[in-house]
Records
---
Amino acid sequence: LPKATNKYLATFRAFLEYARNNGVKISPTALSSYKKISVPDDETLTKTYLNEDELQALYNMPLTGLKEQVRDTFLLGCYLGQRVSDYSTLTAGDFTTTSKGTPVVKITQKKTNSTVTIPILYENIYKIAQKYNYVFPHVHDVVLNRYIKEILNELSDTVPALKKMERTVLTMKERASEQAGKITYTRDEKGYVIRPRYEIVTSHTARRSCITNLYLRGVYTTSQLMAISGHKSEKTFYEYLCCSSEEVADMIANITPNNRNIDL
């Protein structure tokens, strides 16, 4: 996909620059040949998130066995805003308090090796932790990605918003299958592939859900939220926001005094 390709191109260009700076002869043509490729609009249309009401409905859903473990693992990500590789290895020792007594979870992120301190803002975190006696299930992200779609499909019978069709993109494997005539995907009037929301939820949706929900509360600064999520740049942080312009308008209106008293 274009975004992934651009990441690899940037890494390769950095490698060429490093080689040149260390005495390796690199053609100027080579240095200018590996430019970023354009990213089509639909490349950014796969993002979705679950709002706090949907998360509570998911929490209340009666499940057992592996599906219950998948649901609980996914919810931890939605409440803590971390990668599955970080929150799936939580222990009782990660739950602590600050010097002022604020309940927090401390996690050292594997990707960056930086420690983040996350205030516990959802009571469900404790309920899930106590259910497993702080020995959390280890659910591989491949398993999580498969079962969370099935779970949300079941939940969509009582939460119809999960059936809403959203624009998305195909994986390389899916594109190859479609080109070979093995499968046909539903498209909208502009030709974009569309799927129900429950089908495009993955382990990464949990991180997006946490960041987006906290952002939409309208009471935290970007730097505060980045301190929780562990993002180092605002550009990367904003890529995790999935809210629409209407949701942002509602957020602003809700924190503006007397906004509902305006005569229209």
---
Amino acid sequence: VSRTVGANSEAVADYTMALMLAVARRVPLIDGKCRAMNWGKITTRDVSHATLGLLGLGAIGKHVAKRAQGFGMKVIGYVFWNEEYAAANGVEYAEPETIFRTADFISLHLPLTPETKNYVGERELSMMKPDAVLINTARGGLVDEEALLRALQEGRIYGAGLDAFAHEPPENPAWLTLDNAVLGSHCAASTVGATRNMGRMATDNLLADLGL
């Protein structure tokens, strides 16, 4: 058994930023209104110079941090901590509770394990600022989806960008009615480049295993 580690890290990081921008600037909502010939202005929230909290600083989290710095964001992180990397890249350490209470954007980059199941639940959502945005391009089971749905319906957080659900498509049709959520079909890694990388790395692994 071999793995194509890191083949899609850049693609997922790109999509993470795309979701952050789409949710923050209400891009799908504005697009829909324009298609209905409604050119009214919608005031949205800034991404530049905001605080980004990364829960998971593996390969994808590191790529997201690099992109966020281009927006002048303050980046704080937890899990898979690497002091040398953090010092070199301006990432500050923060405990999860601090991230939930202070970050403007929170992005999940964790594996789904018994310990991380429903990592973001009612308690964590209640800590978040009312103008905060949650992004999940990792695994659906990391989020208590019913708790998040209620928070979005009640406007307790600004919005969410979700590329992964516990069941895909989500079983609750209420998700399809939200104008403060951007939904993805678990396609963050689906780019030409990432697919090419996976094929090339899989071939290299096979040749190495065969001693060729």
---
Amino acid sequence: MKRENPAVTEAQVQRRWAAMDFNKDGSVSRKEFVQAEDFAAIDTDSSGTITIDELRAAMKRENPAVTEAQVQRRWAAMDFNKDGSVSRKEFVQAEDFAAIDTDSSGTITIDELRASMKRENPAVTEAQVQRRWAAMDFNKDGSVSRKEFVQAEDFAAIDTDSSGTITIDELRAAMKRENPAVTEA
């Protein structure tokens, strides 16, 4: 950032870092970098959230022939909590879900999960696929909905030792990552 603008402030660097290090692990993966850049390209007012108007404008820049129905479908897939704006977290989770749901059915099958995990790591084992599937298919109906996916992602972000349970220390650390000023109470 200093090479681009020698007058950049530390606060600006910290804001950009916070926007890029989505999982708050102290490093930015290529995937996090791309997702941060994609989010910033849509969030034209730099508010930290995307509005439907910003999404519509971004989709029209990509494809001037995009229909309102296409905008509404993408919006519905992104605004998970239905509050009228899309946070970075919602954006990343929607992008991750869409990357796995290759048939765009709105649910993930175990075959789609397996293919996705193999794309990320060709050496992934069937046992690893089965463990992740068990952690995602909460209702055991053979498919993973967007809601199950988001819940599994949220749980995994807190369960840092992948034990399948969350300790008070893991919860405390997760809350501190979200808000360093969080109190013990």
